[in-house]
Fold:
Amino acid sequence: QSALTQPASVSGSPGQSITISCTGTSSDVGGYNYVSWYQQHPGKAPKLMIYDVSKRPSGVSNRFSGSKSGNRASLTISGLQAEDEVDYYCSSYTSSSTYVFGTGTKVTVL
Amino acid sequence: EVQLVESGGGLVQPGGSLKLSCAASGFTFSGSAMHWVRQASGKGLEWVGRIRSKANSYATAYAASVKGRFTISRDDSKNTAYLQMNSLKTEDTALYYCTRGYCSGGSCYFGGYWGQGTLVTVSS
Structure:
């Protein structure tokens, strides 16, 4: 199972919106509505930001939203803030009853 | 308060074995799936495997990179999950996290709660 493909980096100015893509196949992203997104600060455990493609856990800012079209999922961060400048990973359930992570994206706030 | 505490990491030679533990509290452990995720220093996240609850027959699943070498088990009486790692390779060197999974009623995800991780170093 190959890792899902994410851009290595995405940048935006404060207040802008950015979108991080997560591209898989019909055996993972395209086949199930079980895509999650995680935020990870350096030296810290990941934090679940989105699950089931577009659902937000309690306590996660509504500036974070998720969507999916075909084999590609997306995480959008609106109203970009300095504190958003960390790493983001997607993950998906697969047809092998396993999970796979994305390659990770570093967000830079200009 | 939900807590997950991993332990058992350390230095091991290539070809050796190590067993990690994940002690859970603050939620109904017996009804939860438990996942293991690892991260090599400076690298991305890698899903390792998971074990489901008794209601789901303690079913396990593993990443291809560890299948046949790693085994996940659990002891619901101790609220603890385990990751037995055999035939370790240098590329297994990573910080290993345990995390709670949830899969029911059209919803399926993991990572709502994480431990602090335990470091495994495979080196001669």
About this structure: The first strand of chain B starts at residue 3 and ends at 7. The CA atoms of residues 14 and 89 of chain B lie 5 Å apart. The mean pLDDT of chain B is 96. The interface with chain A takes residues 35, 37, 44-47, 49-50, 61-64, 97, 106-112, 114-117 of chain B (CB under 8 Å).
